[in-house]
Specification:
Blueprint lengths: L7 E4 L5 E4 L7 E5 L23 H15 L8 E3 L6 E3 L9 E4 L2 E4 L6 E5 L3 E7 L4 E7 L1 H5 L2 H13 L7 E4 L9 E2 L1 H11 L6 E3 L6 E3 L1 H11 L4 E4 L24 E6 L2
Helix pairs in contact: 3-5
Length: about 270
């Protein structure tokens, strides 16, 4: 797959706008912008986050609009309580009476009609598909999850649980805060070096004050490549520079919603 292949921007009849992977026409999936929902400012408008101050009614209505847009079964949708870690869970079905499976930042499944859902606002969406074994996955990769190897853990789980081969796995890295905006402290640089053994190509320093800026797209791509995954495309949209379309925790000083990503086997 050409790493420069462009994701497809779709606009639904109900006003929702979302991106799709160009090779996943047979999957029901999308990385959604913040447009087309019912939430009011500062969460406007397709806020999928239930812990950011928005009303429960608005968040549920937004979820239903998102699921309806893709034609997926909302009663089968599964997610996790995202904790900025690197744990991965295997989804078979929702847990009755609870909206999340467990505290984790990655989900994989081979079950049809089981949409995997996560929420983002600067952290990196990672979506996976193995068309040979018919396996899908989704992960939430903040800097902490990235330096703990959430991407590599997703690949290992697909290998160990479903027999996936890295050469068959296709990965999609979604909108996140870019290197130009992601200024970090030295503890992040140290953690990055500890995990990767290098920071070359993963960060740069300001020429005036020496502060560090980390590239989460490059770091997650390298993590996947080291696992043998080479079918990777990146949707190079910086959330902090694109708050008109995506929520950005840093860019909006914490007063924002969460945009969503969904992937499901038909």
């Amino acid at each position: 797959m050409n790493l420069r292949t462009s994701p497809l921007l779709q606009t639904a009849a109900n006003g929702l706008r979302y991106y799709q992977h160009p090779a996943w026409e047979h999957l029901k999936h999308g990385i959604f912008t913040r447009h087309g929902g019912v939430s009011q400012a500062p969460w406007a408008s397709l806020n999928l986050g239930g812990t950011v101050g928005d009303t429960v009614q608005a968040v549920r209505a937004n979820h239903e609009k998102m699921y309806a847009t893709l034609g997926v079964n909302s009663t089968r949708a599964v997610t996790t309580w995202q904790v900025h870690g690197a744990d991965v869970v295997i989804a078979t079905q929702p847990i009755p009476g609870r909206r999340w499976l467990s505290q984790a930042d990655g989900i994989v499944t081979d079950r049809p009609d089981t949409p995997l859902v996560m929420r983002f606002a600067d952290c990196t969406p990672l979506l996976f598909h193995d068309p040979v074994r018919r396996v899908i996955g989704i992960a939430h990769a903040g800097w902490k999850g990235t330096v703990q190897g959430i991407g590599a853990n997703m690949v290992r789980t697909m290998q160990q649980t479903y027999g996936s081969r890295p050469v068959d796995i296709q990965a999609w890295i979604g909108p996140a805060i870019s290197r130009d905006c992601f200024q970090v402290g030295e503890e992040v640089v140290s953690a990055l070096h500890q995990h990767f053994g290098t920071v070359e190509g993963l960060m740069q320093r300001d020429v005036l004050d020496g502060t560090a800026y980390v590239d989460l797209w490059a770091a997650n791509r390298l993590d996947l490549q080291r696992m043998g995954v080479d079918q990777i495309i990146i949707l190079e949209i910086c959330t902090m520079q694109s708050t008109q379309d995506f929520s950005s925790h840093r860019g909006e000083k914490g007063r924002t919603g969460r945009f969503g990503a969904v992937i499901a086997l038909p």
